[in-house]
Design goal:
- The complex is a heterodimer of chains A (536) and B (418).
- Chain A contains 19 helices and 23 strands.
- The radius of gyration of chain A is 23 Å and the shape is globular.
- In chain A, the strands form 4 sheets. In chain A, strands 5, 6, 7, 13, 14, 15, 16, 17, 18 and 19 form a 10-stranded mixed sheet that branches. In chain A, strands 1, 2, 9, 10, 11, 12, 20 and 21 form an 8-stranded mixed sheet that branches.
- The longest helix of chain A has 19 residues.
- Chain A has 3 domains: 167 residues, FAD/NAD(P)-binding domain (3-Layer(bba) Sandwich); 150 residues, D-Amino Acid Oxidase, subunit A, domain 2 (D-Amino Acid Oxidase, Chain A, domain 2), CATH 3.30.9.10; 108 residues, no CATH class.
- Chain A has 536 residues and is α+β, with helices and mostly antiparallel strands.
- With 418 residues, chain B is an alpha/beta fold.
- Chain B is 32% helix and 24% strand.
- In chain B, the strands form 7 sheets. In chain B, strands 13-2-1-16-22-21 form a 6-stranded mixed sheet.
- In chain B, helix 1 runs parallel beside helix 10, helix 1 runs parallel beside helix 12 and helix 4 crosses helix 12.
- Classes of the chains: A alpha+beta (536), B alpha/beta (418).
- At the A-B interface, helix 8, helix 14, helix 17, helix 18 and helix 19 of A face helix 5 and strand 17 of B.
Chain lengths: 536, 418
């Protein structure tokens, strides 16, 4: 592999992927390095809300305007990742109805469509909403699949010449005098070390960007903020539900794919914990309590799992106390800020603005490299979103209907590449999510899958109500058969996968979730004799 | 409806209890909502594989004394060290005769071959499965066959483990027209559906021909457990037609041989004069003083089941014999006293494969397995099987044993009352 690039991007979240794609589309030779799989940090651990910006309209006009612009852009360029559900901001008896008019004015001022609707009409539109609601405003919220979005950016970046190395962790930033000239990395699978060089290194590491900056010898004052969420076992609502009040904990319920999500809590956590976040019983109880106010049926809805992400909040440079936090996009040109050439940090922002963050970063890169190329990411559609889904559906007429729909939902116009050709390939690996052996095979061959968790992100294997009961073992078998790994590693991977699932299930393991866990344990520990004891 | 005994739950525990009572001349009913743990059996039944402190058990009868010292509330401790060995042998004999042939002794665990290729200690193994007395196969060279497209069995796991012990393994897949029919629907390639095609002699004989043509000079042939759901002679017939020893290994659920055992026990219970209410669920009861006087079910509405004695054999969480809510664990039918940690954070270990506290929770009883309500014993209600408190079926390798022995123990308590 060539070791010289124009740009090295550290971090395979939505931001890093967005920068990589933007660079690639402008003809800049980019290498993206990710220490785990893509979208494993905050990108994959949020609501998956396609913000209209309404949430920020009252408190942060600038963010609201950015959101609505990007919202409209993403509907166009990433249609296969987006569900146009719309959103309701509901006022409950305990809330101040006076806030509603202020909210609507602020939305309109930011360019966000906001229609006040009759409470009865709101309940007709969204029957799961709290029937006690006294006010409702309809806004163009939606849902977006963060993994699919990141993957599509990666696929397109690679198609335009970018190189992507997952499971590669940066050990060191290589420095010559006052310039960063490259990185030293370790391949976490093989243990091999290598050095890559570039004119510019971009730090897009999210909360981990704090440490990456440290490796470059500069300080960014970041504050890890943990946000916990709950995933429900089926789609409770079809329209995003928000509370019409100042943003608070657990006041957004987002439908996505086959599930609904409530979040988030918000608490400061120490840096030592960001790699291993556990959701506490108190957080679960708070999410459930507040969630039930949005949609009372949540009380009796099965919770599949709980998880938490870490927002990379950045303290303003002029406030060393760290109290004044910016929620906007932060691009740091370390040449200007710290006298360190060849190093840029892109942070802050949110999933909604990943593309804009990529654009600003790439603009700065172009300026530094004296390249004159305009950004096209706001108009060039992502792979998966280029073809009409109905047309794709017609091409796949031989695939069973449920499987076809699931596959198109997940892969958009790329579903054709996934389609199983023979009856053996159509055999289902995961019944909950209608994932066929063919789709698993495609993901393993073409989508940089290294383990079962990677596979889950790409295909939804093990994400349904059973949370990997039988499909995990089937998929491990296919992975081994395809030569991804030996059986010893397949078993270790299966153990890790089940433990990873349990991490999300244990905080909510009562009712059916506990039943399912008991069964899974019987099958894997009992029938299969799987243990977590490392093999000698 | 009047019975001598009504058993709620028609799994291994409920069936053995009912069988023992019915054969002793009692007029018995079993109310069963459907599937049981036998539907995902490994093909083996465990009695005692390890003590609560983790030490490995070779001889369960010898080890039960130490168990009762470590865990006085364990169901085996309640049965009593003296009674344990005899009861285990009676349970094994009853199962073998009524549910299908099993092999093993309570004096020495043997080993079964898991779908992961490892050996696990156990007590009784159903006829036809691979078993070993010393964690080594009897053959030096085996051929493993799997149905093409069958994802619930992955022979490579087994082959790689066996090779470590110096055994030569060859992997083969088989295909036939009848399998293509099963494959047409993407959800159908499951063990029980495939097993059905081998109920037909013609298909089983075609499999024999395929194996014979491909097996080379191997000493034995290993297959997933799917050789017929009705027939019991699948393994024997293949062995006869191929001229080699044939043995089966457990698949992911459903367990074909477990289903067959469930059906055989069900049949034996009815042969003994019992009445099996399939697809019915007990939902309520009446109680007077320290006695249950009536039981109500979904299907029978306000017509009560009335009996001298009631046996609760509804299992643990999966079968809803225990119900976990976000702040407590309950026994939903009679509201019996349950042993469980009060705080939810005390239910779990973060490592999935560690002993989980919730597995040890369950229904409290006295020595004669009477259920308790507010600390008071209910004189005509017995609790048996997986719903009991005080044991960990996986870590201690005692799930089936607890189900079977408590079933017989409760039956004896009922019979000895008169």
């Amino acid at each position: 592999m060539n070791k010289q690039f124009d740009v090295i991007i550290i971090g395979g979240g939505a931001t890093g992927a967005g920068v990589a794609r933007d660079c690639a589309l402008r003809g800049i030779k980019a290498l993206l390095l990710e220490r785990l799989d893509i979208a494993t940090g905050a990108t994959g651990r949020n609501h998956g809300l396609l913000h209209s910006g309404a949430r920020y309209a009252v408190t942060d006009r600038e963010s609201a305007e950015e959101c609505i612009r990007e919202n409209m852009t993403l509907r166009r360029i990433a249609s296969h990742c987006v569900e146009e559900t719309d959103g309701l901001f509901i006022t409950l008896p305990e809330d101040d109805l006076g806030f509603q008019s202020k909210f609507v004015d602020a939305c309109r001022a930011a360019g966000i469509r906001a229609d006040v609707i009759d409470p009865k009409e709101a309940l007709r539109l969204e029957p799961s909403a709290n029937p006690q609601l006294i006010g409702a405003v309809r806004v163009p919220d939606g849902s977006i699949d963060p993994f699919r979005l990141t993957a599509a950016n990666i696929i397109d970046a690679k198609a335009h010449g970018a190189e992507v190395l997952t499971y590669h962790e940066v050990l060191e930033l290589l420095r010559e005098q006052d310039r960063i000239v490259g990185v030293r990395v370790i391949d976490r699978k093989s243990g091999e070390k290598a050095e890559y060089y570039a004119q510019i290194v971009v730090n897009a590491g999210g909360i981990w960007g704090h440490d990456i900056a440290k490796k470059a010898g500069v300080t960014i004052n970041m504050l890890p903020a943990k946000g916990s969420l709950l995933i429900f076992g089926h789609r409770v609502n079809n329209i995003v539900l928000n509370r019409c009040r100042k943003p608070a904990d657990a006041d957004i319920l987002v439908p996505g794919d086959t599930i609904s999500l409530i979040g988030t809590t918000s608490s400061k956590v120490p840096f030592e914990e960001v790699d291993n976040m556990y959701v506490t019983a108190d957080e679960v109880d708070l999410l459930l309590r507040e969630g039930m106010k949005l949609a009372p049926s949540l009380e009796h809805t099965r919770i599949l799992r709980a998880y938490a992400g870490v927002r990379p909040l950045v303290a303003s440079d002029d406030d060393p106390s760290g109290r004044s936090v910016s929620r906007g996009i932060v691009v740091l040109d370390h040449a200007k800020r710290d006298g360190l050439e060849g190093f840029i940090t892109i942070t802050g922002g949110k999933l909604m603005t990943y593309r804009l963050m990529g654009e600003w970063t790439t603009d700065l890169i172009c300026k530094k490299l004296n390249i004159n190329a305009a950004c096209v990411t706001a108009t060039e559609k992502l792979p998966g979103s280029r073809d009409d889904e109905r047309k794709v559906g017609r091409k796949l007429h031989a695939v069973p209907a449920m499987q076809r729909e699931s596959s198109i939902y997940r892969h958009g116009d790329m579903a054709e590449r996934v389609a199983a050709e023979t009856s053996a390939e159509r055999s289902l690996v995961c019944e909950c999510e209608e994932v066929s052996a063919g789709e698993v095979g495609y993901a393993i061959n073409a989508l940089d899958v290294h383990n079962l968790v990677d596979l889950r992100r790409r295909t939804r294997v093990g994400m349904g109500t059973c949370q990997g009961e039988l499909c995990a073992c089937r998929a491990a078998g296919i992975m081994a058969r395809k030569g991804k790994y030996c059986t010893r590693r397949a078993k270790a991977d299966l153990t890790d996968f089940l433990n990873e699932r349990w991490k999300g299930m244990s905080p909510v393991a009562w009712g059916d979730t506990l039943r399912e866990s008991e069964f899974t344990k019987w099958i894997y520990e009992g029938v299969c004799g799987l243990t977590n004891k490392k093999e000698e | 409806m009047k019975f001598d005994s009504v058993i709620i739950g028609g799994g291994l525990s409920g069936l053995l209890c009912g069988l023992r009572l019915a054969r002793a001349g009692r007029h018995c009913a079993i109310i069963s909502s459907g599937q049981s743990a036998l539907h995902f059996s490994s093909g083996s039944l465990d009695l005692l594989g390890a003590l609560p402190d983790g030490s490995v058990v070779e001889n369960p009868v010898e080890a039960v004394k130490a168990l009762s010292e470590q865990a006085p509330e364990h169901p085996y401790s309640k049965i009593g060290v003296e009674r344990f060995g005899a009861l285990a042998d009676e349970a094994a004999a009853l199962l073998s005769e009524a549910g299908g042939k099993v092999e093993g002794t309570s004096l020495q665990n043997h080993y079964r071959l898991t779908p992961m290729g490892t050996f696990k200690p156990t007590w009784l193994t159903m006829d036809g499965y691979v078993r070993s007395d010393n964690r080594v196969l009897a053959w030096k060279h085996v051929a493993l066959f799997n149905a093409e497209g069958f994802l619930d069995f992955y022979p490579q796991f087994i082959a790689d483990e066996l090779r470590k012990t110096g055994i030569e393994c060859e992997l083969h897949t088989f295909n036939m027209a009848a399998l293509e029919t099963v494959r047409r629907n993407p959800t159908e390639m499951r063990s029980s559906n495939i097993a059905r095609i081998f109920d037909c002699d013609e298909n089983l004989d075609e499999l024999a021909r395929i194996i014979k043509a491909e097996m080379g000079d191997c000493e034995a042939v290993l297959l997933p457990a799917l050789l017929g759901i009705e027939r019991t002679d699948g393994v024997a017939r293949l062995a006869e037609k191929t001229g080699r020893p044939v043995a089966i290994v457990a698949t992911l659920p459903p367990s074909v041989n477990g289903i067959r055992m469930q059906r055989a026990l069900h049949h034996a219970f009815e042969q003994a004069g019992g009445t099996y209410f399939l697809g019915d669920t007990a939902v309520g009861c009446e109680r007077q003083g320290d006695k249950i006087t009536a039981l109500y079910t979904v299907n029978h509405g306000n017509i009560p089941f009335v009996a001298d004695d009631y046996v609760l054999a509804t299992g643990s969480y999966f079968s809803r014999g225990l119900v976990a809510e976000h702040d407590c664990i309950k026994e939903p039918l009679f509201g019996l006293d349950v042993e469980a940690a009060a705080e939810r954070s005390g239910w779990y270990d973060r490592n999935f494969f560690e002993k989980q506290a919730f597995e040890g929770f369950g229904i409290k009883t006295d020595k004669t397995l009477h259920g308790l309500c507010g600390g008071e014993r209910i004189a005509n209600l017995y609790v048996v099987g997986a719903g009991l408190a005080g044991f960990n079926p996986l870590a201690e390798g005692c799930g089936a044993g607890v189900s079977m022995l408590t079933a017989l123990h409760a039956a004896d308590c009922i019979l000895n009352k008169q």
